[in-house]
Design a protein that fits this description.
The protein is α/β, with parallel strands linked by helices. It is about 25% helix and about 10% strand. It has a four-stranded parallel beta sheet with strand order 1-2-5-6, covered by helices on one side. A two-stranded antiparallel ribbon has the order 3-4. It binds calcium ion.
Length: about 190
């Protein structure tokens, strides 16, 4: 664990629900701000909105942000990641993350991303390749699959794995996981989970 974490004051943010900085990127069906949320509802929060609240966060004594997943995914929580190299456009895309990082660094603040590299969404191309090719897929061993056939409707893998059947469980013991984490740290993010 890096030394700076010992004294850091983290503020965890669920981006869809924190602040809507750009109504132009709101997903279809976005609900009015302040409405009682449901499990699936979206409110249009994004990374520009977080950047607009940095004065407020700094006034609280916050020194580091910890964001729940921001990569492209169909749900509001984005734990069902489809593309680990693309910040979801509804959050402002990669450019918005880069600008947020720069604004945080200007204040001496850090950011940690919840990479959730231990599983992905069922739409992820590697899992789709497994569905298509079965054991012949080069990604077969990247997922936790019991038996000899994969399913487009994977079962939950709790307690050790994700609870959602939309999130097939995988392994982090792959070079791709390490390189993906490095890619985002290279943008200035302090770390990934
Ligand atoms: Ca928005």
């Amino acid at each position: 664990m890096p030394d700076w974490v010992q004294d850091a004051i983290f503020y965890q943010i669920f981006p869809d629900r924190f602040c809507n900085g750009d109504v132009g990127n709101d997903p279809p069906g976005t609900r009015p701000w302040g409405e009682v949320p449901t499990r699936e509802s979206t409110f249009g929060g994004d990374l520009l909105g977080i950047a607009e609240k940095l004065d407020y966060l700094e006034s609280l004594g916050v020194t580091a942000l910890y964001l729940t997943p921001v990569f492209k995914a169909p749900t509001n929580h984005k734990y069902d990641t489809e593309d680990y190299f693309q910040v979801d456009p509804v959050f402002g895309g990669n450019e918005a993350l880069q600008k947020l990082v720069e604004k945080l660094h200007a204040r001496g603040m850090r950011i940690v991303l919840d990479g959730v590299f231990n599983h992905c969404g069922e739409r992820h191309p590697f899992f789709q390749d497994v569905l298509k090719k079965g054991c012949a897929s080069p990604y077969w061993d990247w997922f936790t699959i019991w038996g000899t056939e994969s399913s487009g409707n994977p079962s939950p893998t709790t307690p050790a794995g994700p609870a959602s059947p939309r999130c097939p469980s995988g392994t982090t013991e792959t070079p791709k996981c390490a390189s993906t984490s490095c890619r985002w740290c290279a943008t200035g993010c302090a770390s990934t989970r």
